[in-house]
C-alpha cells in the first residue's frame, strides 16, 4: 500500500522559503511570518531580498519597526512616497537609517517627490553609491527647476546609476543629458520628441535601452544621427504621430536591436499594410531582433470592410513570422455609436480573455484564435469572437445609421456575447449575421430589468447546437438560475460561467447545477472583493476547485453522478 508523502511547510529548504517570501510584502514577512516559529524567525534574519514600500498609508510606528528589524544589507529596493506633511515617509526614513549601509540596494523608487526631498536623497546617493550599480526611478510632484536637474545629473555622473526612470520632468533634461558625462545604460522617460531622441542616442554612448511613453514625430523631422547606434539593444516607442518612413530611417541606424516595441495610436491603414511587409526590412536592417511587439490602432474603419483585415493577418502567417520568429498577431474591432476602430497587436500586449476584451455597444469583434506555431499555412483560418446588442443594431438600422446587413459579420465566429436589455425578437437578424453551427461559447449580458426565460434559451441553443459553454452576467452581480432554466442548460451545456462574486448566488448556483463538468465564477474587472469566503465554503464541503493565476476566476468541478 503506497503512502502519500506530504512535506511539512517548516521543513522546506531555505531556497524554497526564500522564493515564497519573494511573493510576500515586507510587513507580512516581519509582522506575521517571522512570529510563526524560531526557524522562520531565523529565516527572516538571513533573507536578503527585502523590498520595502513606504506609502501614504504606512504608519510611523510601522516605519520605525521595519527600520529596526531589517538589516540594511538585506534590502534590495525601496519604494518611497513623499507627502506634503511636515514629517513624511522620506524624511522619517532618512532620520532612522544610514543609507550607506544598504550595500545591496538595486532600486530606489521615489514617487511624488518634491525638490527639497529629492535634494536630500541625491546627496546621499552621490556620497554613498559611487561604487554600487543602482536603478533610480523618480516621479516628480510638480514642475522642475534647473537646480534640481543639475543636481540630478551631477548625482548620475558621480555615482553608478545605470538605469534612470523619469516622469513629470521638464524638457531641459534632454539638453543637459546630452551635455553631461552620463554613463546611463537604461533610460525610461514619459515623453520626448524625435529630435530629442536623436540627441540622446547621439550623446549617450553607453545607452542600451530606451523607452518613451509618448514619442512625438513631426512630418518635417529629420534623422540626425551621424553614426550607427550599435550599442542600443532595446527600444520602446509609443506615439500618436508615428510615420512609417521616418520610423524605418531611425531603425536602420539601430542595427543591434534585440527588443523592439512599437505602439502607434490613431494610425493609418497604409501604416499597417506596410508593417505587414516588414519581413524583408527586419532581415536586412534588424538581423539580431528576437522580440518584436506592436500595437497599431486605426480610427474610422467601417465595419463593412472588416473582412479586409483578414488579408493583413494572413500576411503575418508566413514561416518567417510564425515558425522562425514565433511572432503572433491578434486583431480587435470596435464598433459603437461613437467609435469605429480596429487594432492589430501582439497577443502578449493583451491578456484579456473573452468576453472582456470586447466592448459593449452595437458591435464589437476580435479574433479568438491567432497565428500559432502549429498553424497549417495553407489552410489556416481566422476565427472571431463577437459581442453585439441586437436591439441597438435594429434601432440603428431603422434610423438609417446602419445599413441593413445582408451577409455575415465575418467568417468563422466561434464565440458570441449578447448584450440583452430587451427581449430578443429577431433571431432572423442574428442568423443573417452569424453562422450558429460554428459557435462553441455564448455569453449573455443581462440588464437588471430583463429576465432571460427558458423558452428563449432553448430557441438559442437549438440554433447553436455545438455550444457547450454558456456564460451569464447580470448588472447587479447576482445570478439566479431557475429550475426550468437549469433543465434547459443541463441538456446541452457542459460548462457554465457566471460573472459574480456574490457569495449567496455562487452557493445557489452550485447547489442547483447537475450533469455539468464545472461552473466557473468570474469577477467583474476592477472588483476588489476576494474569493476568501467562497474558498472557505468549498473546502468545508469538500468540492474540488482551481483559481486562475490572475485570481479573476474560480472554477469548481462538479460531481456528475450527484
Automatic annotation (TrEMBL):
<keyword id="KW-0472">Membrane</keyword>
<keyword id="KW-1133">Transmembrane helix</keyword>
<feature type="transmembrane region" description="Helical">
    <location>
        <begin position="75"/>
        <end position="97"/>
    </location>
</feature>
<dbReference type="Pfam" id="PF00646">
    <property type="entry name" value="F-box"/>
</dbReference>
<keyword id="KW-0812">Transmembrane</keyword>
<protein>
    <recommendedName>
        <fullName>F-box domain-containing protein</fullName>
    </recommendedName>
</protein>
<dbReference type="InterPro" id="IPR032675">
    <property type="entry name" value="LRR_dom_sf"/>
</dbReference>
<dbReference type="InterPro" id="IPR001810">
    <property type="entry name" value="F-box_dom"/>
</dbReference>
<dbReference type="InterPro" id="IPR036047">
    <property type="entry name" value="F-box-like_dom_sf"/>
</dbReference>
<feature type="domain" description="F-box">
    <location>
        <begin position="6"/>
        <end position="53"/>
    </location>
</feature>
Amino acid at each position: 500500500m503506497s503512502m502519500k508523502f506530504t512535506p511539512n511547510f517548516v521543513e522546506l529548504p531555505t531556497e524554497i522559503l526564500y522564493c515564497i517570501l519573494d511573493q510576500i510584502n515586507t510587513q507580512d514577512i516581519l509582522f506575521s511570518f517571522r512570529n510563526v516559529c524560531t526557524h522562520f524567525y531565523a529565516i527572516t534574519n538571513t533573507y536578503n531580498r527585502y523590498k520595502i514600500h513606504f506609502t501614504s498609508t504606512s504608519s510611523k510606528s510601522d516605519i520605525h519597526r521595519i527600520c529596526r528589524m531589517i538589516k540594511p544589507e538585506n534590502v534590495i529596493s525601496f519604494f518611497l512616497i513623499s507627502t506634503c506633511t511636515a514629517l513624511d515617509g522620506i524624511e522619517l526614513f532618512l532620520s532612522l537609517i544610514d543609507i550607506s549601509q544598504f550595500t545591496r540596494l538595486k532600486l530606489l523608487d521615489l514617487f511624488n517627490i518634491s525638490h527639497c526631498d529629492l535634494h536630500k536623497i541625491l546627496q546621499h546617493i552621490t556620497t554613498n553609491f559611487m561604487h554600487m550599480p543602482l536603478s533610480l526611478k523618480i516621479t516628480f510632484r510638480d514642475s522642475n527647476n534647473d537646480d534640481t536637474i543639475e543636481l540630478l545629473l551631477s548625482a548620475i555622473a558621480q555615482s553608478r546609476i545605470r538605469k534612470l526612470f523619469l516622469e513629470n520632468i521638464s524638457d531641459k533634461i534632454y539638453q543637459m543629458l546630452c551635455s553631461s558625462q552620463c554613463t546611463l545604460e537604461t533610460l525610461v522617460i514619459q515623453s520626448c520628441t524625435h529630435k530629442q531622441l536623436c540627441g540622446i542616442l547621439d550623446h549617450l554612448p553607453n545607452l542600451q535601452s530606451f523607452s518613451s511613453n509618448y514619442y512625438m514625430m513631426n512630418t518635417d523631422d529629420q534623422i540626425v544621427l551621424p553614426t550607427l547606434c550599435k550599442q542600443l539593444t532595446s527600444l520602446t516607442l509609443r506615439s500618436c504621430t508615428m510615420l512609417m518612413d521616418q520610423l524605418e530611417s531611425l531603425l536602420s541606424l539601430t542595427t543591434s536591436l534585440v527588443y523592439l516595441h512599437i505602439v502607434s495610436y490613431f494610425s493609418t491603414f497604409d501604416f499597417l499594410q506596410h508593417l505587414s511587409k516588414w519581413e524583408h526590412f527586419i532581415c536586412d536592417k534588424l538581423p539580431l531582433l528576437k522580440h518584436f511587439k506592436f500595437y497599431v490602432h486605426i480610427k474610422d474603419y467601417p465595419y463593412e470592410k472588416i473582412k479586409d483585415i483578414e488579408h493583413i493577418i494572413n500576411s503575418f502567417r508566413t514561416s518567417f513570422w510564425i515558425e522562425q520568429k514565433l511572432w503572433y498577431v491578434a486583431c480587435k474591432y470596435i464598433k459603437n455609436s461613437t467609435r469605429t476602430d480596429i487594432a492589430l497587436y501582439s497577443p502578449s500586449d493583451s491578456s484579456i480573455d473573452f468576453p472582456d476584451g470586447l466592448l459593449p455597444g452595437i458591435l464589437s469583434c476580435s479574433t479568438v484564435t491567432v497565428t500559432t506555431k502549429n498553424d497549417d499555412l495553407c489552410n489556416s483560418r481566422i476565427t472571431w469572437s463577437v459581442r453585439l446588442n441586437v436591439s441597438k443594431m435594429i434601432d440603428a438600422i431603422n434610423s438609417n445609421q446602419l445599413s441593413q446587413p445582408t451577409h455575415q459579420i465575418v467568417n468563422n465566429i466561434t464565440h458570441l456575447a449578447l448584450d440583452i436589455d430587451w427581449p430578443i425578437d429577431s433571431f432572423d437578424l442574428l442568423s443573417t449575421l452569424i453562422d450558429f453551427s460554428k459557435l462553441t461559447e455564448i455569453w449573455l449580458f443581462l440588464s437588471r430589468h430583463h429576465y432571460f426565460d427558458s423558452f428563449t434559451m432553448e430557441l438559442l441553443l437549438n440554433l447553436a447546437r455545438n455550444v457547450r459553454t454558456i456564460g451569464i452576467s447580470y448588472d447587479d452581480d447576482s445570478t439566479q438560475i431557475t429550475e426550468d432554466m437549469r433543465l434547459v442548460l443541463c441538456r446541452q451545456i457542459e460548462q457554465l460561467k457566471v460573472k459574480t462574486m456574490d457569495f449567496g448566488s455562487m452557493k445557489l448556483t452550485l447547489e442547483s447545477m447537475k450533469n455539468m463538468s464545472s461552473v466557473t465564477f468570474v469577477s467583474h474587472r476592477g472588483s476588489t472583493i476576494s474569493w476568501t469566503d467562497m474558498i472557505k465554503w468549498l473546502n468545508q464541503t469538500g468540492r474540488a476547485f482551481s483559481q486562475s493565476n490572475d485570481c479573476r476566476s474560480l472554477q469548481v468541478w462538479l460531481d456528475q453522478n450527484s
